[in-house]
Amino acid sequence: MANNGILQGSFFMDGDTACAEGALAAGCRFFGGYPITPATEIAERMVLRLPQVDGTYIQMEDEIASMNAVLGASWGGARAMTATSGPGFSLMMENLGLGIMTETPCVVVNVQRGGPSTGMPTLVGQGDMMQARWGSHGDYEIIALAPSSPQELFDLTIRAFNLAEKYRTPVLVMTDETVGHMSERVIIPPPEEIEHYPRRKPDVPPSADYLPYKSEPNSVPPMACAGDGYRVHVTGLTHNEKGYPDTVNLDVQQQMLERLINKIQHNKDDIIELHEDQVEGADIVVVAYGISARTAARPIRLAREMGLKVGLLKLVTVWPFAEERIRELAPKIKAFVVPEINMGQIVLEVERCAAGQTETILVPHAGGGLHKTKDVLATIKKFA
Amino acid sequence: MKLWRKPLDQDRVMIPHGEVHIIIERCKGCELCVTYCPCDVLEMSRIFNAKGYSLPQVDGSKDCVICGLCEMICPEFAIYIEEVSHG
Amino acid sequence: MNEELSNVLISKEHPMDDYLREDRLPHIWCSGCGLGTILTSFVSALQKSGLDRDKVAVVSGIGCTGRAAGYLYLDGFHTTHGRAIPFATGLKLGNPELKVVVISGDGDLVAIGGNHFIHAARRNMDITVICVNNFNYGMTSGQMGPTTPTGARTSTSPYGNHEPPFSVPYLAAASGATYVARWTSLHIRRLEDSILEALNKKGFSVVEIISPCPTYYGKKNKMGSALQQMKYYHENSVIRHGSDPAESGIDLGGEIVVGCFINKDKPTFLDSQKRSV
Questions:
Q1: Which residues of B touch C227 (CB under 8 A)?
Q2: Do C and B touch, counting CB pairs below 8 Å (3 needed)?
Q3: CA distance A62 to C152
Q4: CATH number, domain containing residue B65
Q5: pTM, full prediction
């Protein structure tokens, strides 16, 4: 272990533990959570490790409280996170919206399990992908990442913290039970190789004229935290640049909401990460994310061995959605094949962007397990 | 002010005297200041502000002793007292 | 205005404006509502506390009292309904140098936020909670709430409330708060002293303040104007310092026990956590 309490080297660890270590390496110093299968191991790791890096862990009374504590801690100046699964994710939706509205950097990890409701607590699911996009009320944009392995869970948790700071927004890490509980080698690089996007503070001194939500096109305002002397007012109500509520002026709502959306929409090139494998020249492009991108590897290999031209487009960033890339590929291919552990969520986005220019085929799975190679292979063969 | 007995040091004690300041736009005419002024210095006027609330004023025959109660009880930050200098 | 107010000076600024977002005044609260008076008491107490005001943050939930954070010129957070306490918990733990004060209403704190309230008290989170109790949900036009006395009429208890209410001091004390007091918005000087004590208290301190709601609760229950409600408080409040919080229930038309019920010392969440690791 490096002397600052952050691990370094090669480890054999499960995804949940890797997620916690990624958070610590990213500078996370606050975790507020509530136990829930299959995300509990993240909390257990954090309660053990946070005291070693002068951080604070608190087990809240529920996930509503957890989400709020995370927002509060972020305004207190800490890098803050929580981790949960479906039922807890539902409870977090209310204040995920507050985080978006108040532009509070933080990270929420959802280790997805089978649903709906209590569903299959110990088994895998990918049924919260649309909830991640639309789960809180009102209009907004969100960033969601989907790791496929413990190493990616480590890496993407760090990236999530950096994106959260850069765009002043909650960032979701949408992993799943299989990745969370799978143990593999995880390489933790030395601290100087880990990206660290610092919190941007105002570059003007505190004054009564300070505008904490100054609206420049696509801009992300610097963040004056509690105790910094700026005496900011932060509200979940529609607010003007001063941060003051203005709940009747339609221009204020328009300007505020446009900026909240555009700061993500207009920076998609920076935010969206895709991993492509033999997509150029392919007849079939498998679009997958998380554990499903990993289980798709074998049917893709078998199809290629049969002489079929199959590519893999892995959505590392699921939200904002890689619209442009799908649009670009649609006229060139015979079909998009979308395996996901739900009855059809991200496939709807693919279909929307394909806009009838090619077939979009879902390979559904109700949850609790992974796709069978033969099911994905059969779909590929049918449309190749 | 009525005294129930004459204090021994009455000659030496100077009762402070205050002037009432009112921020007209803030007042909502709740009458708390008028009701709770222990010296009955304030009274309601027949004058209204732009929002239609009637405003308090000072009954010229009474003296404000700067107890500060009106300032504290006013829910609108609309009234305060300043001491009149004795010089 | 044709006539002039006699014997008063017309002013544009108030001595307390430095602590207020005076560009947002007049505030939205109704004429005679106790909330403005309570803010005055809070600011006075804060001035006397010696706390560095740049290290004081106010967190509010939703409702009439929820707007309190928005009028104070301090770091202020207007959160979601019921969630002021968990937000404040995170804020305190994110920066333990801060003095974190929650100012919110009875419906916000002990109905939708009731679970957060008792757990923050249980773990003795080092925050001060100022709970303004007007016996109903004022912002949404006077529905019954967790403190509405049995028998009281509100827009959602048109036949009279058939549920028993919470007593905030009893709930706070039973959950483990280190400081529990109740005053009305009429007890301005005692209230100021009490808020000052609460601000200087380590641990979970709670001051409940009974405040008139002339527009809804007062009207529905024939209590008259704000002024008449204040007179009612004047006549029916009984100061009983140190009395059993279990005896602090408020009946419709009955007496209102006020005073400081609990003032004790015990380790805060952060104290205990540091010791355990």
A1: 30-32, 35
A2: yes
A3: 32
A4: 3.30.70.20
A5: 0.97
